[in-house]
Each structure stands twice: as structure tokens, then as C-alpha cells.
């Protein structure tokens, strides 16, 4: 642990001059995420021409530790909070030389930006949780929670990531969930990918982040779903119209073909993804099939209710989520 005397206590004279000189001038800029926000207060330090920012929600005057974010925002807090919520800090602060002292708080510079520490400490302090979006930010907070062994914040992020309210990209959530062994969340995310063409260039970055075995599981799901749809549509017991060639009209007994049915099948099977049950059952192609009539007697060729019911039941049996067993 690298310990320095915190400039937030205005005891700058204890801060080694060489360390001050090494501080990048960029640190004097207000962090972009807090620019114009009342959450951060600028503290001028004319003696060393170095300004820094203190987080107004974590500015306790009797704090015994100061966490400094990568972008130089100071979080003055009580070490007890860290001991209670973080295994990493509990171990760190239990070392004999690292016990914090009230009045002369030690400062600890962390790798995370202030926005991530803000979210992490707010959750740990039972304050109002900030919006955990976009998904990149959500994952950053999760990684920090895991790094500092903070199960509370990690569980909040887990819920947020898999909540439909966040509407996070499903492939990205799938990658995050599978890496952590979150089976239920991974299966739910895989179900949300069904409407996506996994080979679309827009998804390449998210797909690249999925571990190879789990990526294969996702591809297998999409492939199995398409194969199952093909088998359903080819099932002559369910749909006699799938018989090649012509069949007898149920009304007049003359030979009829099933062009509309085969067109419906073809249009479905050439799609990059298998549409949802609702989309298929409400499609214009299916409507055309159900309205198709015999050229000879003009009676409809198919029982609309039975055909729709058979198709609906068969579609329900299509796989909808990955098998991670
Ligand atoms: Zn007929």
C-alpha cells in the first residue's frame, strides 16, 4: 500500500514535493463525468498551484481515509464503511501499519475513475443508486466491486445488468454473465439474442468479448432453433400441405398445389433469424396461406383455426435459451 498524506486535509507540506511535481496537470481539470455537477467541489490549493476536487457526498470532515480517484476526485469516508463492505479493504486496513487515524486521514490513490467510485461507494453506503448505464459503465462498476471484494455492490450491479429496465445489449450481458457462471442470467440474455443476427457487423465487438465455449453454445442455440423450425414446417403429420407435389382438395377432391404454403416456409427459412412465435403467427405470409383457396371449387384449402393452433404449439417447442449444462 502506497500511503501519502492527503492534500484534502490541507496538510500539503507533508506531501513530498517530488510527488506533487509528478502529478499530471490534467488532474487539475474537473472530471468530465462531473463537469457542472454539484457532486464535486473544486478546492484551490494555491501554495502548490494544484487544484483538486472533493466529492460533496463523501466529504466528511472527520473521515479517517481519503480515496482518490484516477481523475483526482477525493472521497473522504470512514474506514469502517470499507471494513464492513469490502474484503480487500478489510485485509488492507487490518495490517498494523495501515490502521487509519482520525484527524490525519491517509489517502489511497485508486485506479478507478471518480464515476465508478461514486457508484460503488453510493451502493455500499445505501445511498440512492446512480443510473448504471451504459453497459460499459455497469461492467466497470462490477469489475471494481469484484476487485475490492464488495459482494453488496456486485449483487446490485448483477440485478441491474440483467434487468429489462436497463435494456443492455443481450450479447454483452450474455458474455458478462457466462464469465461469472451466472447461469440463469446467461440463459435469459441468450433468449434476448434470438431476434439478432449474430453475424451482423454491429455485434462483432460484443461477440468478440464472449468466451469461446459460451460463444459456441450461443451459436448452437441459434442453429438448433432454425433446424427445429425446419423440422416443424416439414412435418407432414402436422401440415399435410408440406407433401411434395399436389394433394386432393378436401372439398371437391381435385388436385391442388400449395404454392402459398411453400412460399411461407421458404420466406421463414431464408431469414437470418427465426422470428418470434407472435411474429410468425401474425405474419402476412401466414395470412395468405390461410386465405388460399382451391382453384376449382373456390373453398379455402386449410382450416385456419387448426393450422394456426398446430403451428403455435409446434413453435412453442423450439429451443429458446442456451444449454450450459
Ligand atoms: Zn376444391
Automatic annotation (TrEMBL):
It comes from the Eukaryota. Residues 63-165 form the BTB domain. InterPro entries: BTB/POZ_dom, SKP1/BTB/POZ_sf. This is BTB domain-containing protein. It comes from Obba rivulosa.
